[in-house]
Design brief:
With 187 residues, the protein is α+β, with helices and mostly antiparallel strands. It has 9 helices and 5 strands; from the N terminus they run βββαββαααααααα. Strand 2 (16-20) and strand 3 form a beta hairpin. The protein has helices at 32-37, 65-75, 82-88, 93-101, 105-108, 116-130, 146-154, 159-167, 176-186; strands at 4-12, 16-20, 25-29, 43-53, 56-62. Helix content is 43%, strand content 20%. Residues 132-143 have low confidence and may be disordered. It is globular, with a radius of gyration of 18 Å. Strands 1-2-3-5-4 form a 5-stranded mixed β-barrel. The protein folds into 3 domains: 4-62, OB fold (Dihydrolipoamide Acetyltransferase, E2P) (Beta Barrel); 65-137, 5' to 3' exonuclease, C-terminal subdomain (DNA polymerase, domain 1, Orthogonal Bundle); 140-186.
């Protein structure tokens, strides 16, 4: 099973790329935002889900481990295959986590291909996983205000850097404004 690929983007296709890893080019399905972000000849690292069916072997790639685990959780839900999971991953992962935690099935069902029942299944099956510290996509390993994290990301900071600073943050700092102030003074 292929779990990781690193190489150069040889071609961008419709919802797919050809990733040249040396003398082999892999056809990899990617989420739309990633496809829009990359250019041909860019170097790229992808975490891969290998989907094996009787008549097909397909690769689905995402940029982060967080997205990889989320993809795996999505395809474990009845009625969601890798292609639909890629459409779900076109929505920012923090927005999806928020919709799941808030049981906002209306927001989830706005994603093409997702009806109300599928949205309800996503909430039912993933709410516990998104809300626990078991997965990296919990956030930053601490019970942190997601608004603060999103604000810092929108200011251009990388999640890894945010995680380092916030992991050393005193426990008494709570609330979006305090977290952002602490981060900006300690970044």
């Amino acid at each position: 099973m292929i779990a990781y690929l690193q190489g150069q983007v040889l071609r961008k296709l419709n919802r797919q790329i050809i990733l040249d890893t040396g003398k082999i080019g892999y056809l990899v399905n990617v989420p739309t935002p990633l496809l829009e972000e990359i250019e041909e000849n860019d170097n790229l690292e992808l975490f891969i889900h290998t989907n094996v069916r009787e008549d097909d072997l397909s690769l689905y790639g995402v940029k982060t481990v967080e997205e990889y685990y989320f993809l795996k959780d999505l395809i474990s839900i009845s009625g969601i295959g890798p292609r639909l999971a890629m459409d779900i991953l076109a929505v920012p992962i923090e927005s999806m986590k928020g919709a799941i935690l808030n049981e906002d099935t209306n927001a989830i069902s706005k994603i093409p291909g997702i009806g109300k029942k599928t949205a309800e299944r996503i909430v039912l099956e993933l709410k516990g996983k998104v809300g626990t510290g078991e997965r990296e996509y919990k956030g930053l390993g601490k019970d942190v205000d997601e608004d603060a994290v999103e604000a810092l990301v929108s200011l251009g900071y990388q999640k890894g850097h945010i995680q380092k600073v916030i992991s050393k943050m005193p426990e008494d700092i709570k609330g979006t404004e305090e977290i952002i102030k602490h981060f900006l003074t300690n970044a």
